[in-house]
Design brief:
Chain A is mainly α. In chain A, 74% of the residues lie in helices and 2% in strands. Chain A is built from 21 helices and 2 strands. The longest helix of chain A has 32 residues. Classes of the chains: A mainly alpha, B mainly alpha.
Amino acid sequence: MSLIQAISAAAGGAAAVPAGPALGLIEQLPGLQVALPMLGAVLAALLRPGWLAYAVMLVVALLSPVISFAILHEVLAYGPISYEMGGWEPPVGIEYRIDEANAFLLVLVSIMMAMVTIYAPRATASEIPARLHSWYYAMLLICFCGLQGMAITGDAFNIFVFMEISSLAMYALIAMGKDRRALVAAYQYLVIGTIGATFYVLGIGLAFALTGTLNLVDLAVKLDPVQDSRGALAALAFISVGIGLKLALFPLHLWLPNAYAFAPSVATALIASTATKVAVYILVRFVYSVYGVDISETMAYDTAFVLLLASIAMIAPSLVAVFQSNVKRMLAYSSVAQIGYIMVGVALLNEAGLTGGLSHLFNHAIIKGCLFLAVGCVVYSTGITKIDQMAGLGRTMPLTMGAFVVAGLGLIGVPGTAGFVSKWYLIQGAAEVGYWWLVAAIVIASLIAVFYVGRVVELAWFREARGAAASPRAPAPEMLAVTWALALAVLYFGFQTDISAGVPAQAAEVLLNGYTGGAMPVAETQGGVSLGE
Amino acid sequence: MTAEMVPTGALGGLSPGLILIIGALAVPFLKEQARGPYLLLLPVLAFFQLMSLDHGLMGVVSVFDIELVTLRVDRLSFIFGTIFLIATLLSMIYQYHVKGWMEHTAGMIYAGSAVGAVFSGDLVSLFLFWEGTAIASVFLIWATRTPEAMAAGQRYLIVQVGSGVLLLAGTMVHYGQTGSLAFDSFDVETTAGLLIFLSFGIKCAFPLMHNWLQDAYPQATVTGTVMLSAFTTKLAVYALARGFAGTEILVPIGAVMTAFPIFYAVIENDLRRVLAYSLNNQLGFMVVGIGIGTELAVSGAAAHAFCHILYKALLFMSMGAVLLRTGTVKGSELGGLYRTMPWTATFCAIGAASISAFPLFSGFVSKSLIISAAMKEGYFVTWLVLLFASAGVFHHSGIKIPFFAFFAHDSGMRPKEAPTNMLIAMAIAATLCIGIGVFPGPLYAILPYDVSYHAYSLEHVITQLQLLIFSALAFTVLMRTGLYPPELRSTNLDSDWIWRKGGGWVLGRLEAAWRGASAALQQGAIRGVQRFVANLYKAHGPESALARTRPSGYMALWMTLLLGVFMLFAFI
């Protein structure tokens, strides 16, 4: 963290190690985090040459992780940050409120954005007409801005605004895909996504009618006495279903496969690794922080219902993925299944489960980002998206397909990869409450992943290359470098779990306490392991 | 909680297994000339590390909140580690002439995983190495590159990985229930214990779980089979000895294992497959020893594993040499090879004498430990089965293998003697077989428990000689009277006269019935799987209800439905 300390010291002009949150620029970081991409987007849209727009995006994307790491550092060191937007005091003004949970998410989103941005230029040049480049980069930045805003804000209506900002950008991004079906996919997502957002607004409208506030912390306090009332429960139901659509909880996932399959490579990688994750965070925020875990007693059936849906989500879409013929669509269905894992963790309502869910949120973002970027390399070099045409690619594009194998192992959850860490916690969480059927479901779903990943691996590595696969053009070095950086991260986080499981564990603890500090008895998890004696 | 720290060996707390594995990773990058000496150096280096280690728990690695003990040295792991490293060195000498890096690397990783597994102090490390043996070893089968070998390798891999999955499942349940990951003894009556037991059982080729062994081993390369015969199943024996010593059910399981392969071995024509069956039979002895669970019996199992690895490797090496020089190991096609391969024939005979437990050969000093233990603990029926099995071993391994390969009718083949490196490997193994047989002292000294046992008591020697002489007599009579058909269809010598008269016919019938039944079963299974996949495809394929692209209204309907359900559940 020495770099961040240096930055904060330089920015605040303070002594080497500040005693409290540093003053000056560092205090404005939360605002910058959202303002920077938004300004960048406007600038990019105004700059007509594509490469200039790209330069703007690159600057923003490389600065953002620095900012979000600084924020995470602040939060871990000094506790939650409250930032008053425009100097208006909450609860009337909009408050940006950052604790362990969303600081972690900001880091994830901004790193993925940085990765995707480094990867972008040549992939974009091969997929998007040159006259649209500036718009495309601007849309990526707006999407990024919206996602960061959703993650950072502490205001329920502000969440809606940023949700719409990111969603509108996503519709446009998807529509820019080369395939003509991209237009239909984007249009369908637009219609359905709008319904989802409407549900969410209805939900917060109900909550506002009950409490007169939109600030999340304030909402938590004022909902506390009335949260068993029908209005409050209906509000939560609307919010859950609305966000459930955004995060593609089975069976509300129908928009996702086509959207991922037909969007441009870079957009797919960004959306797949961040958009649904931010939506999961919003749901977790409402259920755990605003309503508090004790709501689960009132809504025991709903919790069980979500758990059931999540379990089906792990298995049924995985099976669908096995039979897909388009590799991007296969990965998309696998994403739906992975959302199932995350939601299982969320719905288990214990610390190990929630840790597993949040950790899988992080790990899956890296894994799926890597897989989509690897597929992006394949598309760039050969134009292939059909799985049967990928035969022999392992021999002609060993580096790309090597990264695919590594990330694929992570997706399966092989020990030594990041995927194993989160599944381990999920299984522990399920075992803690005695749901052995759920443990079995998690294992079975992982086994199915062996089939759909194995299918591609077998074709790519054990068959003769034919057609386009036999003579690919060399993939661009920066595309390969980013893909491999993520693949190595999959391995790295399989062993070094401070970030991929340690921070989620802290976040889970914060979330379980809720904004009102609800006295949820945190289940004892097993700490050390006794060996030998 | 934490492992007690003890002074560590020459290379710190690095597991000898990891030395082999890490060392193996460099093999592909070495020049052809440097590769051979380097491969011999690795096991020697690992062996020195092992010798310099004190007993205790070492190599503790923390992986998230779990502490893994990668190096546990005690008497049980020491003897298995020692013999595994000896076997590694022998295999490397034996395959010195093989070109290319693939087999060498896979073989070394395989051996390293087996050694690493033996020294694992916790279930997670065990699991990792366990899967390591599975994945690395399959390349030894695939290296043959025939379609049959590819298919057999795939089946082998599925079974082995399946065993690993069971182990992982057992580990997780065990951890969930006890909070401990230590690899100590388990109770087979708990869920976790049963899962782990089954995992070990598959790898140990328990009856009905054994088919992968006879399926895959004869398909491996000449040199690969030697390695396979040494590690996989003996690792399982070690794991059983560690986890399930004294588990009563192992005694009948082991007894069945000693007996049933004999019937298959005598009617089998492929001599390497005969050895694969006899491998199963030998494992049975060890399993019985572990099941009895007394200090004498477990020591016997360990000693038998030690000797067994040597003479079984020796036998596979000699058959490998024959395969290399003649291109076949079919008993019906071979014969008379002693003229041009005298050394190989001699070594094969020594291996055969050892496996048959002739006095002064290694099998005698170890097998008698187990048989004595069975007698002492009052397992009378088991004792009888073991005696019967001992006689059977003599027939199919002791006589059949050397006789049909090197003697019998002259096949007319005049192959060259085996390559020098193979002869050296065989010579070392043969020397060890005789050395242990004549001077069992050093072996007895490193057994897991202190046992005062005298193999060469009058009673043991006479019992064994009676068995052997009786068998040899039967064989001679059959040969003289011309009842020994050349294609080995009914060479069933080990039982009485009735067997000789009707055995062939009965066996033929039984075999036909079994073949029919298993074919029907197989077809049924294939059809079942096909139907299952078809149904899966119907429900999940691209055109299924789950995967079709739906109109937007359909989504809205789902949302409304879900909202309804949510509200309903919330309000009741």
